[in-house]
From TrEMBL:
Residues 54-217 form the LUD domain. InterPro entries: FTHF_cligase-like_sf (IPR024185), LUD_dom (IPR003741), NagB/RpiA_transferase-like (IPR037171). This is Lactate utilization protein B/C. It comes from the Bacteria.
Length: 220
């Protein structure tokens, strides 16, 4: 077997690396950052409820916010939206909501099935929502959580008031508590419709995800 000798220069470099690794860690350039509370790094949100902050941020990000006082309002608004868009097939990945819609005679809603890839929209729930950024925190633990929120042209998220938190850190902490620190294998933060400037640096929507995002906010 042929053997190779390490050059003197290479050995000197490796020795310096080994020596450096044995020494204490290099001090941080800004050690005070480690002691700074994350919340203090952000601008304070103006007066108002979490719901109001989320609605404003979500709308600014290009989303469509629909306020529903009751489930009956949600049902009526969904029918009105589908009629105005001419939708004939809307998938629903949220099983309790799907049962409610079917039991109330909504004929255009189908139970989620990846084979129905020509559906015009898809309805899901979310893990939580972020008031500051107007984002939805989604995970693979949700029913078809990897596909349902991103595959179809329109994404409709049903959100309840108690699901809204202030910041992203609060949302991640919520997930840690919910899943006993065994986080889902995928966590996705969705903010408004899909956007990309990959092609000739021209901003377009709906290429890598939904072109439109609706939030049906259920005030319960």
């Amino acid at each position: 077997m042929q053997t190779f000798k390490t050059s003197k220069a290479k050995e000197n470099i490796l020795r310096k690396i080994r020596t450096a690794l044995q020494e204490d860690a290099i001090s941080l350039p800004f050690p005070e950052v480690e002691k700074t509370k994350i919340a203090s790094l952000f601008a304070t949100m103006n007066e108002g409820t979490m719901e109001e902050h989320f609605a404003a941020s979500f709308t600014n990000a290009g989303g469509h916010f629909v306020f529903c006082n009751t489930q009956e309002d949600l049902l009526a608004n969904l029918k009105l939206l589908a009629e105005s868009r001419g939708w004939t097939e809307v998938l629903c990945a949220h099983k309790p909501l799907f049962s409610y819609l079917v039991n109330n005679g909504v004929s255009f809603v189908r139970e989620f099935n990846p084979k129905h890839d020509h559906a015009q929209a898809c309805i899901t729930d979310c893990e939580t929502a972020i008031a500051r950024t107007g984002s939805f925190l989604l995970s693979s633990h949700q029913n078809h959580g990897r596909v349902a929120p991103v595959y179809f042209p329109v994404h409709i998220v049903v959100l309840q008031a108690h699901q809204i938190v202030a910041d992203i850190g609060d949302g991640l902490q919520f997930l840690k508590q919910k899943y006993n620190d065994q986080l889902p294998s995928m966590i996705n933060l969705n903010t408004g419709p899909s956007r990309t400037a990959d092609i000739e640096k021209t901003l377009v929507t709906g290429v890598h995800g939904p072109k439109e995002v609706f939030c049906f906010f259920l005030n319960q």
